[in-house]
Amino acid sequence: MARLRRISPLGIPQHIVQRGNNRQVCFASEQDLAAYVNWLEEYAGQFGVSVHAWVLMTNHVHLLVTPKKEGGVSSMMQAVGRRYVRYFNREHRRTGTLWEGRFKASLVQSEVYLLACQRYIELNPVRAGMVSDPADYVWSSYQAHALGKSIKVHSPHSEYLKLGEEASKRQSSYRALFDAHVECRLIEDIRAAVNKGMALGDTRFKDEIERLHGRRVRPATMGRPVIEVP
């Protein structure tokens, strides 16, 4: 089956996942993690991408970003990926590929799904059993959103800023969102969207994206097409 053309509309958030090849480890030390974040900040600035949320896991990366320049997301991911692979291979005395092909991405409707997707990303270490509280995991955006930690790569989305006029109010409101678990159905929807390159949003959002960009952003209808007889 032909691979769907990637679309990257300006101003529309994207949930990105990049995995290690065959789920292999791509971060083996704190130094590795710090190096990736450093280059993510550098190339996000260079290619005009706002980074709203992230988590770096042992063998994969989740990002929530918005492009401000044409081709910004792909250029950023290619630059970060290539530079990090050169570093990782040199540092760990290995050769060959590190990433599992091209990164996966789904468009995210801001008004309905952005904060839910952000919570999903920042709860990855909890679901993986690495920590019991997302605040205890350093390599995610949770500490920036919930605790006010200053992190250079962080660019808060407007939906987050709506949580309160003052920083302390926003942080308190954000922490309260984590009092309830992300629903299983929503987790499935988020995963399906990013793995299949679809959109995470309501029908109106998907209709608009398909109309503007001429590419479907929801699963194809199964079965044979219906032929209308005049």
Notes on the structure:
The chain is α+β, with helices and mostly antiparallel strands. It has one domain (14-202): Alpha-Beta Plaits (2-Layer Sandwich). It has nine helices and five strands. The chain has helices at 30-47, 72-91, 110-122, 124-127, 142-147, 158-161, 167-177, 184-196, 203-213; strands at 14-19, 49-56, 60-67, 104-108, 199-200. A hairpin with a 3-residue loop joins strand 2 and strand 3 (60-67).
What's the rounded overall pLDDT mean?
93
Shape: globular
What is the CATH third-level topology name? Answer: Alpha-Beta Plaits
How many structural domains does the protein architecture include? 1
Largest sheet: 5 strands, mixed
What is the count of DSSP helices, taking H or I runs of 4+ residues?
Answer: 9
Strand content: 5-15%
The helix/strand class is alpha+beta
